[in-house]
Amino acid sequence: MNIITVDKDPRSADQLIADEIRREMRERKILMINLISSPGSGKTTLLEKALPPLQSRVRLAVIEADNATTNDADRLQAIGAKVEPVCTGVTSCHLSAVATRKAIAALGVEGLELLVVENVGNLVCPAEEDIGEDYKIAVLSVAEGEDKPLKYPLCFQEASLVLLNKIDAAVALGADTDLMERNVRATNPKVEVLRVSARTGEGVAAFVEWVVRRVRAKQT
Ligand SMILES: Nc1nc2c(ncn2[C@@H]2O[C@H](COP(=O)(O)OP(=O)(O)OP(=O)(O)O)[C@@H](O)[C@H]2O)c(=O)[nH]1
Ligand SMILES: [Mg+2]
Ligand SMILES: [Zn+2]
To answer: pTM here?
Structure first.
């Protein structure tokens, strides 16, 4: 069987814009993280738990990308975060570098130390797109099935950190969390993995420390 592969042109217009964003964030010493995952893995719930302790230590803002609705942006605004919603439109399944640049301009990032992006829920395209971030962080919930890292490897290969979420529900779901973590490491042996529950708050402090360490590292 012939398998057709499609490679991305590294000099595409989008890539040039991502490079521009990365340069601006380097000059401004702003750490930019990009949360990617399938729909419903718990990105927004994790941010609802992690942003209050993060906001007491670093100046941050959030870009919230969704197909439709500003539901997630509203949720984060409700906890006092500065948020720029981006509706990608129902036919677009990821945040592009172009849309990210527009959101950065609308937000006004002067004086920030951290820019958090919640990408559209989708295990494929957001992993392919460079939006100029320092780190992609993949959120994988134990409800999704242990084989997901093997079936959608790019998401985990591109990530520097994997948050294994909903561990509070692992027993009820009969999920094998150790196998899931092994499958994550099989796709990316260098990746860091933190087990968390956005519901109970377990592991969220470790995630906050992971982010703050990198915010400070970028400033030195
Ligand atoms: N039991 C449990 N449920 C969780 C946890 N985190 C999130 N949820 C639930 O999972 C559902 C989806 O959570 P969201 O935070 O909206 O997920 P999301 O990844 O932001 O979803 P999209 O933005 O649509 O991709 C909600 O019903 C949450 O309450 C967790 O740690 N444990
Ligand atoms: Mg969300
Ligand atoms: Zn897409």
So the answer is: 0.95
